[in-house]
User: What shape does this take?
Amino acid sequence: MQARSPVANAAAETERVRAVQDKQAQKYDRQISFFERILFGEGREWVCSQARGKVLELACGTARNLPFYRDDAEVTGIELSPQMLAIGQQRAQRLGHSADLRLGDVQALDFADESFDTVTCTLGFCTIPDTRAAAAEAFRVLRPGGQLLLLEHVRSPTGIVRGGQRLLEPLAVRFEADHLMREPLDYLPEVGFEIDEVLRSKWGIVERLRAHKPG
Assistant: This one.
């Protein structure tokens, strides 16, 4: 049997992630609210309160971030899962928020170069199949001097915690499409971002990160 090409493998994994997220959509808000309480705290507020101008949110999910953006932020959100997006659009309607929430793939954005002042992502790079491609796309659509703001769970620098993450990783990836051992600092500088601030908490598992595209 002929092996599939890397492009075919990437496309297949993207479709698998879409299917997993569609299946999880109805219970996602209930599940993530628990982890927000015990792990992520005010991470969403930290990200969204710093977003300025034209904002692109990657992997916007069920649009839990919308209440935390400034009133003058012009928000566009991209989401892979139609079921997640439908819930997000309903939330935007209830809130009376003018965000433009669209179906799309953050690994191949349908926007011109230098279209946005800020790119945000909260708990999304852990599931994106090709993180480097998504980071490169974020860099491309940012204007020079524009900010990238992230909240992520990442691999811990503490050995015993990292060992537990490594043991759980295969199950998390298989059933949740959730990678526990990723670290944005591994790929953001490679695509051109300059890192401005990294804040770690919860045994180093939770990371808040601010970077920019050089002007």
Remarks:
- Residues 6-212 form a domain with the Rossmann fold fold (CATH 3.40.50.150).
- The chain has a mean pLDDT of 96.
- The beta strands are 54-58, 74-79, 100-103, 116-122, 142-153, 194-201, 206-212.
- The chain has one domain: 6-212.
